[in-house]
Amino acid sequence: MSNTIHKTAIVGEQVKLGENVNIGPYAVIEAQVTLGDNVIVGAHCVVEGHTTIGNGCQLYTGAVIGSPPQDRKHQKADKVFLNIGANNVFREYVTVNPGTVEGGGETRIGDNNLFMACCHVAHDCHIGSDCVLANYVGLSGHVTIEDRAVIGGLSGVHQYARVGYLSMIGGCSKVNQDVPPFSLVDGNPATLRGLNIVGLKRADIPSSIQRSLHSAFKILFNSGLNRSNAVLQVKEQLNGQPEIHRVIEFIQTSKRGIS
Q1: Residue of 71, 124, 178, 186 marked catalytic
Q2: Which CATH number goes with the domain that contains 44?
Q3: pTM for this entry
């Protein structure tokens, strides 16, 4: 199928387009951009830089994807990248920056994510797949979001913080430490509230594993043990399941501490 490019859109000579790409009015696609098959770029969007957008992605009105990182150390001549997987939705006025040389040179986004209106993804962020970022979520530089995480609207995530697998962050939260997998956090600063029970059920996590996670969280966060002794106890009692191992590994590799 042929591509559809509105007569008012500007598409640079070096841009690479897949099949069945649709580019709307007054959109600007320039520099070293690659758009995969079936990508839709809405009106007044801007895509620039060394940016790759995978098949089936949708950019709604005013999204700005691949503009230079908001970092004073960034130089115009720096060769940095933004790599986006398939079937992501970027709603109105979402902004996503590429990496920085200092941070490894790449911002990376997986597949099937939803970025609601006015979200910002800063330089050197690594986002997994099947995540939801609600309206006005702001990710600072070097943030890692693991698969299936949900971040409530108006929340901000501090530089270098990590948000674990299948976790949920309540709206208007200030996330300045790591959020464990399977957890629910909320507040300013964000504080652990327990397991993400709704998320576990939606993900069809078996009841037996949910009970094990509940026991692990009780030991890790409510037993009064220091973190190393709590981890040791969980390993001794519950470490046979991959979900428990994921939580332990996340905690042991945390550099900012746990919410």
Answers
A1: 124
A2: 2.160.10.10
A3: 0.97
